[in-house]
C-alpha cells in the first residue's frame, strides 16, 4: 500500500502494511488542518470516538450529534464535515477494506456501517470492553513492526467490530441467520452501487436478481419502508450532492455522469427532490465554489 496517501480530509499516513491508523482530532486540529475546514470525501472507514464534548458531525449532509464517550461509525466514501464551532476531544480510527483481510463482506453487511435507512448512522456508548479493544489497536499501531503485527492488527480490529455489533444487537430478539428479504436487499444494494449511474429501471434490477419486481419491492419495503424506485432515486440524488460538493464539474456534466442525457432533466430531478437547483445547492453547502 502507498506509504503516504493524503485524502481530502484527514492525513491518513497509512504507514502500517494493512492500512489502520488512529489519530487525535479536536477543534484546534481541525482549525489548523486546511482539508478539514471544508466538506470532504473519505475513501476509508472511520470510527470517531468522542471522548469529551458534544460535536455535531455532518455525514452526507445529515447532522449527527454525538454524546460524550460514544463511538460513531462512518462507512467509506461518505461526505463528511467536522464541527468547527464546538470544543471537543476525540480520536478517529481509520481503516480500509483490506484491513480485515479475507472478510471484506463483513464491512458491507454489518449494521455498524450499513443501515436500511441511509440517513441513519450507528452510535454506540463507549463500553469498557470496546475501549479495551480500541486501546489494543492503538498500542499495536505504535509498536515497532514485525512479522506478527499485520495479523495482530486484523484480529484486534475484528474483535473491536464484532464486539460493537454484539452490543448493537444487545436486547434485540436473536437472529436466525439472514432472512430471504435481507439477502435480496443486500444483493439489490450491491447492484445499485454498480449500476445507479445508468438510470436503469426497477425491472433491470429484478431481472439481474432473477426475481419479479413485486418480490423486490416487497423486500425493500419490508426492510426500509421504501420502494426500489425510491431507493434508486435516493442513491442518484446522494451521488449528485456528493459530486456537486466534491468535484469542480459543472452541473450539466454531473448530470451526464449520472446518466441524464439532457441537462434539463437532471436539473428538474434535483430540484424536485431537494427544492433547489444544483447551483444553489453547491453555493449553499460550499460557499465560494463556482458552478
UniProtKB/TrEMBL annotation:
Presence of the UniProt keyword DNA-binding in the record: yes
SUPFAM superfamilies documented for this protein: Homeodomain-like
Keyword terms, alphabetized: DNA-binding, Transcription, Transcription regulation
Domain of life, source organism: Bacteria
Protein's recorded name: Helix-turn-helix domain-containing protein
Residue span, HTH araC/xylS-type domain: 186-284
Lineage: Bacteria, Pseudomonadati, Bacteroidota, Chitinophagia, Chitinophagales
A Pfam family that the UniProt record links to this protein: HTH_18
Entry keyword DNA-binding: yes
Species, as recorded: Chitinophaga silvisoli
Amino acid at each position: 500500500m502507498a506509504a503516504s496517501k493524503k485524502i481530502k480530509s484527514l492525513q491518513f499516513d497509512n504507514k502500517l502494511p494493512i492500512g489502520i491508523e488512529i489519530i487525535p482530532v479536536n477543534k484546534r486540529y481541525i482549525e489548523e488542518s486546511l482539508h478539514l475546514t471544508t466538506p470532504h470525501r473519505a475513501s476509508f472507514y472511520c470510527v470517531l470516538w468522542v471522548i469529551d464534548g458534544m460535536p455535531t458531525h455532518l455525514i452526507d449532509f445529515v447532522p449527527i450529534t454525538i454524546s460524550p464517550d460514544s463511538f460513531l461509525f462512518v462507512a467509506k466514501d461518505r461526505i463528511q464535515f467536522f464541527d468547527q464551532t464546538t470544543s471537543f476531544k476525540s480520536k478517529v480510527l481509520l481503516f480500509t477494506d483490506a484491513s480485515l483481510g479475507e472478510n471484506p463482506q463483513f464491512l458491507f453487511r454489518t449494521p455498524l456501517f450499513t443501515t436500511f435507512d441511509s440517513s441513519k448512522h450507528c452510535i454506540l456508548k463507549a463500553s469498557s470492553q470496546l475501549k479495551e479493544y480500541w486501546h489494543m489497536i492503538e498500542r499495536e499501531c505504535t509498536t515497532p513492526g514485525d512479522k506478527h503485527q499485520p495479523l495482530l492488527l486484523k484480529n484486534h480490529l475484528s474483535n473491536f467490530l464484532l464486539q460493537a455489533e454484539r452490543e448493537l444487537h444487545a436486547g434485540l430478539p436473536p437472529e436466525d441467520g439472514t432472512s430471504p428479504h435481507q439477502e435480496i436487499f443486500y444483493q439489490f444494494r450491491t447492484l445499485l452501487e454498480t449500476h445507479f449511474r445508468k438510470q436503469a429501471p426497477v425491472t433491470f434490477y429484478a431481472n439481474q436478481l432473477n426475481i419479479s419486481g413485486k418480490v423486490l419491492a416487497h423486500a425493500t419495503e419490508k426492510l426500509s419502508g421504501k420502494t426500489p424506485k425510491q431507493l434508486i432515486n435516493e442513491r442518484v440524488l446522494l451521488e449528485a450532492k456528493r459530486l456537486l460538493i466534491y468535484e469542480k464539474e459543472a452541473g450539466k456534466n454531473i448530470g451526464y455522469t449520472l446518466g441524464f442525457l439532457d441537462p434539463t432533466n437532471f436539473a428538474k430531478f434535483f430540484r424536485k427532490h431537494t427544492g433547489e437547483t444544483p447551483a444553489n445547492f453547491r453555493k449553499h453547502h460550499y460557499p465560494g465554489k463556482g458552478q
